[in-house]
Amino acid sequence: MIPRFPFKAFALGAILLIPAAPALAATCGTGSFGAWLDDFKSEAAAKGISQSAIASGLAGVTLDQAVLSRDHSQRVFSQSFEEFSGRMVPPRLARGANLMKQYGSVLGRIEQSYGVPGEVLVAIWGLETDFGVNIGKFPTLRSLATLAYDCRRSDMFRAELMDALRILERGDLSPQEMRGAWAGEIGQTQFMPSSYIKYAVDFDGNGRRDLLRSAPDVLASTANYLASYGWQRGKGWEPGSANFAVIQQWNKSEVYSKTIGYFASQLARAP
Predict the structure, then answer these.
(1) Greatest CA separation found in the chain?
(2) pTM (predicted TM-score)
(3) Which tens digit of pLDDT belongs to each residue from 147-160?
């Protein structure tokens, strides 16, 4: 997820309740969605985004009531660590261990570059999207435009929509490829567009930062995110440690962060 949101919502049910913000954007929720979108297109052009990216990304975009319904009906996550980790980790442990072996050389190079162990990256990968199986099917640009038009957190989602257009502009993804979770998270570890812009890396060297299909890009970008928050090379990640605090920058929920750490520790012990 990826701070990405200030509080990361993610594909496995948007665990955290994100509090509503005051209506700060002057045009949010006023007038028709089409008129709002036209204003947004003008703002994007004024900020230097190309007309081709604006046209390809926003042509035909309409309001998505399903996204609004999900956003307005979020619930506070109430499972304990024992409940959540017990539900999430055992079904993913064998697959995670196999992927540790399959991508062993890639993970080794990533740890050499960023200092983040493969166990932590594979744990996040598994918890976020079942190792890329469930990345979400919502059209990202439509979701972000809908949430930017709504007045709960308009400013935040306007910024995310701008960054989604920048992803298109630099050629990492096409509008048709840009599908993910209902709140705009993209890729196999669920980056918000702002995090995609800041932290996505082309680790497989094909010229694109592809967090939808390239496992090396996905894993290295996730490591880059954690490294940027001060991951300490060669240190553990137990609760209370500096590295656990970095994991909490990935997801503010202590239960979720502890589950990442627990999953990673289980992977480290796997034969």
Answers:
(1) 60
(2) 0.88
(3) 999 998 999 999 99
